[in-house]
Design brief:
Blueprint (H helix, E strand, L loop, with lengths): L5 H10 L2 H4 L12 H7 L8 H18 L5 H4 L5 H6 L12 H6 L4 E2 L5 H8 L8 H9 L6 E5 L5 E6 L1 H5 E3 L7 E2 L1 E3 L8 H6 L5 H7 L3 H10 L4 E2 L3 H4 L12 E2 L20 H10 L8 E2 L10 H6 L3 E2 L9 H13 L12 H12 L20 E2 L1 H4 L14 E2 L23 H11 L6 H12 L2
Helix pairs in contact: 3-4, 4-17, 15-17, 18-21, 20-21
Bound molecules: heme C (HEC) (2 copies).
The site of one heme C has 25 residues, from helix 19, strand 12, helix 20 and helix 21.
């Protein structure tokens, strides 16, 4: 497949030579991450510790925002998703995906990638946001957050790939709803991943893997709804909970994770464990991944049968592993955003703070300022007073104490791993009953205001 984005090829090429090209001279720590060094344009020269860290951060951000890890071979090559985006009029199939439809499905547009003339034209109402050709133009500008279009020399789209930013970034809506500056690490709770994937001309690869027909695959994808994704479906084939509800979980934020042990709601491993997992398995990037826990045929029948815990590529074909270090550093640098002024009652929040650490006993698990346990931060479903369906889909059979900073940024879709509690008051009511805390109605509201202040 031809690409219009040479930098990926360059990064892969340089990955092999850069780390050895820089000889450490001074006492400064060098982080010789190839992608980072390429971004900083160092050409392999030695960087000071600060420069090296900055270069690593820039490289990690680039990976987070723009790197498909070669997953276009799946989303474009196998599912032909780009054909559904283009539509028949533009060489694809079906009606195509207009910008307005894309925005309605929760896709976001990076206003900073739009040239000033285009901004003027959009403001003057001269751009037809119901025309799929405009979506293709936005992809060509690399303006659709988390989605990369690949185009041939004649300008026709011939592939599409996805990035971390698809689910873990949104925009600040500064230009229009869904169009603005990027907010890396924020959970995109508007994004209907399943509905988008279900538009693909074929979902046969999923059907084969899961041993069902394509209709069933599309039904499952459409059952997820906005802000949700099922990262474990292709490991265990469980699409629905015993109560018939979707098995998908909420997209969590990717900020505020520094210092936090264990990641995802069920604690699979560290941030970098999960990055390797998600880039190789759910995203279908082309890398290497090792986890013999997936060999358990009872728990992970599909992963075990397909050897998902033993994916090995030659060093020069591995498009994930060389990016992990810088990606990890960048993610840990993403701090939770501070709640806007006036978004909570300050005095009530102060009373709530005292309750959080006192009568409500929250800080026994949510230890400030991390708001998770320093150390082993997993709890059994029984301890939490919730069912164990999702916990049992992970190796540890437990739920991880969620770090709570920046809660205000992801209230849409509800709380706990599957959004079962619609509001923070519902969460507090659950704890009040389960732990028999005896909070008054006013105390519950104070705790909620405190949560909104984090
Ligand atoms: C299609 C949507 C999607 C994409 C793309 C995606 N993620 Fe996620 N991510 C999720 C969902 C859903 C979860 C929660 C999984 C769970 O709890 O089982 C998650 C969990 C995480 C977590 C754990 C957060 C926590 O609270 O501990 C991290 C870290 C993360 N993703 C990073 C990444 C990175 C890095 C990439 C790109 C390599 C990426 N994700 C790509 C949807 C996505
Ligand atoms: C026994 C340990 C423990 C205690 C005590 C505890 N929590 Fe939690 N908390 C957790 C775990 C584990 C989760 C993740 C549950 C899930 O995702 O299913 C969680 C999740 C949450 C969430 C949801 C976060 C999100 O992003 O969805 C909120 C809010 C919360 N807790 C607030 C509180 C408050 C307020 C208290 C005190 C009244 C409290 N917690 C007491 C362990 C605890």
């Amino acid at each position: 497949m031809r690409t219009h984005r040479a930098p990926i090829a360059i990064v892969v090429f340089l990955a092999g030579i850069l780390p050895t090209a820089c000889q450490q001279s001074g006492g400064d720590q060098i982080l010789p991450t190839a992608a980072a060094a390429v971004d900083a344009g160092s050409g392999g020269e030695c960087l000071s510790g600060d420069e090296s860290l900055a270069a690593t951060m820039t490289g990690g951000r680039k990976t987070f925002r723009f790197d498909t890890f070669g997953d276009e071979a799946f989303w474009g090559g196998q599912l032909r998703l780009h054909e559904a985006i283009a539509g028949e009029a533009n060489g694809g199939v079906g009606p195509g995906l207009s910008p307005n439809q894309a925005l309605a499905l929760g896709l976001k547009v990076d206003a900073e990638a739009l040239p000033p003339e285009l901004i003027d034209q959009i403001e003057a109402g001269e751009v037809d946001l119901d025309d799929p050709a405009v979506t293709l133009a936005l992809l060509q500008l690399n303006a659709v957050v988390g989605v990369t279009g690949f185009f041939d020399d004649a300008g026709a789209i011939n592939g599409v790939g996805i990035q971390c930013a698809l689910c873990h970034s949104t925009v600040d809506d500064s230009f229009a709803p869904g169009i603005g500056a990027r907010l890396d690490g924020w959970a995109n709770r508007d994004l209907d991943v399943g509905a988008i994937v279900a538009t693909a001309p074929t979902v046969l690869p999923f059907a084969r893997l899961l041993g069902v027909d394509q209709r069933t695959v599309r039904t499952v994808l459409r059952s997820w709804g906005p802000g949700k994704f099922d990262a474990e479906l292709m490991l265990d084939g469980k699409a629905f909970r015993p109560d018939g509800k979707s098995a998908a979980t909420l997209i969590p934020p990717a900020f505020g994770l520094a210092g936090v042990n264990l990641h995802t709601s069920t604690g699979w491993g560290s941030v970098t464990y999960w990055n390797a997992f998600v880039a190789n398995l759910p995203m279908h990037g082309e890398g290497s991944f090792f986890d013999p826990r997936l060999d358990d045929p009872k728990k992970f029948p599909i992963a075990a049968a397909n050897g998902f815990g033993h994916i090995q590529r030659d060093e020069d074909e591995d498009r994930v592993t060389p990016k992990l270090a810088a990606l990890h550093v960048y993610q840990l640098s993403l701090e939770a955003p501070v709640p806007p002024e006036g978004s909570f009652d300050v005095e009530a929040a102060e009373r709530g703070d005292a309750l959080f650490e006192g009568k409500a006993k929250c800080s026994g698990c949510h230890v400030p300022p991390l708001y998770t346990e320093p150390g082993w931060n997993l709890h059994t479903p029984a301890e939490m007073g919730v069912d164990g369906f999702q916990a049992r889909r992970s190796p540890e059979n437990r739920y991880r104490t969620t770090p709570l900073k920046g809660l205000f940024s992801h209230t849409k879709g509800g709380f706990f791993h599957d959004g079962r509690f619609a509001t923070l008051l519902d969460v507090v009511n659950h704890y009040n009953d389960h732990f028999a805390l005896g909070l008054t109605e006013r105390q519950k509201r104070d705790v909620v205001e405190y949560l909104k202040s984090l």
